[in-house]
Amino acid sequence: MTAHYEVRGSVAVITLDNPPVNGLGFATRAACAAGVERAEADPAVTAVVITGAGKAFSGGADIKEFGSPKALAEPNLLSLIGVVENCSKPVVAAIHSVCMGGGLELSLGCHYRVAQTGTKVALPEVKLGLLPGAGGTQRLPRALGVEPALNMIVSGEPVEAQMLAMVPGQKLFDKIVDADVVAAAVAFAADVADKRPLPKVRDLKARHPNAEAYFQFARNMVGGMSKNFPAPLRCLEAVAGAVKLKFDDGMRAEREGFAALMLTPESKALRHLFFAERVASKIADVPEDTPLRTVAKVGVIGAGTMGGGISMNFLNAGLPVTILETKQEALDRGVATIKKNYEAQVKKGKLKEDKYAARMALLSTTLSYDDLKDCDLIIEAVFEEIGVKEAVFKQLDAVAKPGAILASNTSTLDVDKIASFTKRSQDVVGMHFFSPANVMKLLEVVRGKETAKDVLGTVMAIGKKIKKTAVVSGVCDGFIGNRMIEQYSRQAGFLLDEGCSPQQVDKAVEKFGFAMGPFRMGDLAGNDIGWAIRKRRAVERATMKYSASADRLCELGRFGQKTGAGWYDYLPGKRDAIPSAVVDEMLAKHREAIGAKKRDISDEEIVHRLVFSLVNEAAHLLEEGIAQRASDVDMVYLTGYGFPIFRGGPMCYADTLGLFNVVQAMNRFAKNPMDDGEFWKPAPLLARLVAEGKSFT
User: Can you give the residue ranges of the 3-hydroxyacyl-CoA dehydrogenase NAD binding domain (predicted)?
Assistant: First the structure.
């Protein structure tokens, strides 16, 4: 976690060494600055090269120090860049592999830059709701040009070094090499050792032939694409400052913008997401060095919508898949759907023909369980009924090889009960994919009471391989996501009882930032699915109260888009949700039947009742150990349920509002005569956190 110093001939080489990406933590910054000062003081040294050990030049700030005093301790990044820039001997950055964020800003403080082909270069701070805070918005436009620099800063996306070197007039890179960038940089440093004055990026001019018109055009474009995120427009204004302000004034404006963005809820949410995504893969009692099982071949049972989508994930990752069905027609339909999905990607230019052919070559089909005997991982995606699951897992138990992982794609059923259908419960795990499975990022990994640690570790690693956000859940009805959404849906129904229309609720929630409101979501998923759950609840938990409005809807045969009518009307072949006079009439009769008085309900109340119902149920899940951590709950809702990213998930949002305020609102909602007195009772964990003045995250 430091930097190493050596001398090659007359050139000092300082190597940043803070794995995995040479984050610029305090110890690394201090050692790098000390190395420059040492070279400065040594008369035998004529030039300096700064590079990075391992697989990166530098990925920027050290995330382990985020929010700690060390992040700002001197020398901070600005101070280090000042030491480098003001060195009296030429400093050359030897850039390779990854050069991002503060790493790129450090290289821009060097006098020269030699880069290796394929190096990924980026200023990704906008993805954390921030702007580059160590001169990136001031130096990159000077070195690369205003337009390409603005594109990089506003998007945060990486660009390969050789592509940037092709920008006309660029002074970002002095040389591009294919291999051994350090040797090339040392040779380059020796060649320029006597050249004076030393070139500084800060002395270059950031020019644009029609700056005012260009930035106004860019404001319109960026503003339209980032309405819920303040950082992109702040980035744009900082770059505009590079054109119209002196360098030091531009730097002050950049720091002011950075400090202002750090305080925004949007940046807090994005930084929370950044850490939550990384910590989700860590399981308290499963060490990171746990030996994993080999997964070289995958079996999928069921060629329907879910089975086909699941299969595509593994084909995309280069793993052979065998799909099993009971009838050839079902197999043919499933394979045809997979082909159709891939062909659509080819048509849009998102997939090359040869890759499409390679993926299809990995796919095989069968009607016999015997053909799954050499699979390392077998996932069932059959009808959501315990008797069907039992038949499948008894068959798998008979044919699967020892050590094969047997996974269920169940969304609500008891994984422990499913495991009991086998003599190898330690090999059974839940892998709950979300529809469409080849698109949705979330994978709920359901840990049974006997699931082996190496099985859990292997499935989490597989999740990463197939580019999913894998979150561990314990066993309960609905796991994390669906157990919470049931409370959300219940509250949405109560809002209808009290006078809201489906479109009023949906509009309020979508204005808040959800991808889709609860009633449009119900129509898309199929209202008959919720109906079946409520019928099951009537037997299992007869005291649980629901609005009867959804049952009345289903009794009319209005199951949603698939029937052309649900909470909304739909025209043939279209998905536009049209407010329905039939539903309005049904709701009016329903309210009359239950004696409910219609009242005016604000958008804020709608949103808070729905979101706080999620928060309270999540607090129960945390208390019960079903979810490991509050940030895991947020990852489930951000990647699987359309919760607005700029709000950071339900738990982050509750923390931002203040848990005291959340509970106060819940207490007000509990006074509603339509409430049964139990719904808004704070979960013990939530009540305890409020009493202790703490937060979830």
Answer: 297-473
Instruction: Give yes or no for residue 5 having a pLDDT over 70.
Output: yes
CB atoms within 10 A of CB 594: 11
pLDDT value at 697 more than 90: no
Residue 442's identity, in one-letter code, is L
Question: Strand order of the sheet with strand 112-116?
Answer: 2-8, 11-17, 47-52, 91-95, 112-116, 175-177
Q: Which pLDDT belongs to residue 149?
A: 97
**Which helix (DSSP H) or strand (DSSP E) does residue 299 occupy?**
strand 298-301
Helix axes 211-225 and 231-244, enclosed angle (nearest 10): 170
Q: Catalytic positions, please? A: 105, 125
- Per residue in 29-72, pLDDT tens? 999 999 999 999 999 999 999 999 999 999 998 877 877 788 78
DSSP string, 579-598: E-HHHHHHHHHHHHHHTPPP
pLDDT tens digits for 592-618?
Answer: 999 888 888 999 999 999 999 999 999
Q: What share of the chain is helix, strand, coil (3-state, %, to 5)?
A: 50, 10, 35
CA-based radius of gyration for the chain: 29
Biggest CA-to-CA distance, the chain: 94
| pLDDT at residue 15, rounded to an integer | 98
For 414, phi and psi rounded to 5 degrees?
-75, 110
Coil vs helix vs strand at 548: coil
Question: What CA–CA distance (Å, rounded) separates 236 from 153?
Answer: 8
pLDDT at 1: 63
C-alpha–C-alpha distance, residues 369 and 384, integer Å: 20
Strand blocks (E) in 382-501:
405-408, 428-433, 442-446, 469-473
Give the closest residue to 271 by CA, choosing from 393, 170, 129, 395.
129
517: region left, alpha or beta (phi > 0 left; psi from -120 to 50 alpha): beta
Do residues 428 and 390 touch, judged by C-beta distance below 8 A?
Answer: no
| 304 burial type by CB count under 10 A (0-12 exposed, 13-18 middle, 19+ buried) | middle
Report phi then psi at 473, rounded to 5.
Answer: -130, 150
Q: Give the sign of the dihedral formed by CA 337, CA 343, CA 349, CA 353.
A: positive
More confident residue, 380 or 542: 380
Predicted pLDDT of residue 545: 87
Would you say 567 and 580 are in contact if contact means Cβ atoms under 8 Å apart? yes
- Binned at pLDDT 50, 70 and 90, residue 525 comes out as confident
Q: How far apart are CA 380 and CA 409, in angstroms?
A: 6
For residue 573 the two structure tokens come to: 């072949």
Cite the beta strand spans of 43-89 per DSSP E. Answer: 47-52
CB 444 within 8 A of CB 636: yes
Q: Is pLDDT at 449 greater than 70 in this prediction?
A: yes
Tell me which residue of 550, 11, 634 sits closest to 270, measured CA to CA: 634
In 411-459, at which residue ranges do the beta strands (DSSP E only) sit? Answer: 428-433, 442-446
Instruction: Give 605-608 contacts, CB < 8 A, sequence gap 24+.
Output: 605/669, 606/495, 606/500, 606/504, 606/505, 606/508, 606/509, 607/508, 607/509, 607/512, 608/665, 608/669
Separation of alpha carbons 255 and 77, rounded Å: 12
Q: How far apart are CA 447 and CA 455, in angstroms?
A: 9
205 burial (CB, 10 Å; 0-12 / 13-18 / 19+) is: exposed
Please state whether beta strands 363-366 and 321-324 pair in parallel, antiparallel, or not at all (unpaired). Answer: parallel
pTM exceeds 0.70, yes or no: yes
- Structure-block tokens of residue 293: 């099982």
Please calculate the CA angle 679-681-682 and round it to the nearest 5 degrees: 125
> Averaged over 540-547, what is the pLDDT?
84
Q: What is the DSSP letter of 132?
A: -
